[in-house]
Amino acid sequence: VVISLFVNPTQFGPGEDLEDYPRDFKRDKTLAEKTGVDIIFYPSDKEMYPDRFLTRVTVDKITEVLCGVSRLHHFQGVTTVCAKLFNIVKPHLAVFGQKDFQQSVVIKQMVRDLNIDMDIITGPIIREADGLAMSSRNTYLSEDERRDAISLNQSLFQAKEMVQQGERETKVLSQFIEDKISSRKSARIDYISIVHPRTLEPLEVIRVNALIALAVFVGKTRLIDNVLIEI
After folding, report:
1. What is the pTM of this model?
2. Residue 204: exposed, middle, or buried by beta-carbon count in 10 A (0-12, 13-18, 19+)?
C-alpha cells in the first residue's frame, strides 16, 4: 500500500490557498503507519515538475462543469499530476474519495481513455462527528463558521430524504438547499447542482441515479460536499 503526500501546485489557481494549505507530514506519517501503509511517496515540487516541464494532460467536457466553472485549469493540474503518480508508482488500483466526486469521475475517464492498466475505486465520504465531510480545509473554520458549515451536510441529507419521499423536481430540491444554506450568516454558495453521476450532465427530474453536489464558501473557506441518490 502506497500513499502519496503532495500538495500539487498546478491545481491551485491565482488567489487560492496554495501557500496556506495544511501540511503536517509527522501527523500524516503517524496516521499512515497506523493504517498499514507500506510506503509514503513524498516528492518535492522540483522532483514532480523539473525545469522545462512542458506536458499537460487534459480531459474535456466533464471538467468544465461543477467545480470546473470557478476553478479554471484545476482539473488539468489534477489529471497531469495523477498521470505522473500512476506512472511513477504503477499501482494496481487507486482510491479517490467521494467527497471530490467530480475528481473521481475525471480520473476514471482519463484512465479509460488512455488505457492505463489499473482500477479506480471511489471511497466513501468520511464525516466528522457533526456530519461535516472531512477536509484539510476544515481547520480554517472558526467556531461560528463551523456551526454554519454543518448546514451543507444537513441540507444534502434532508434533500435526499425529500427524494425518498417522492420529490423528483431538481429545481425544488436545489431551492430547498439554497434556502437552508443561505440562512447561515457566513455562507456564500458557489454552486448547487443535481447531475447524472457518470456524465455530470444536469438533471431536471430525477428518474435515474443522481448526484447532488455543492460548493460553498464559509467565511473565506471553500467547502464541497455531495450525496448520491439511488433510484
Report:
1. 0.96
2. exposed
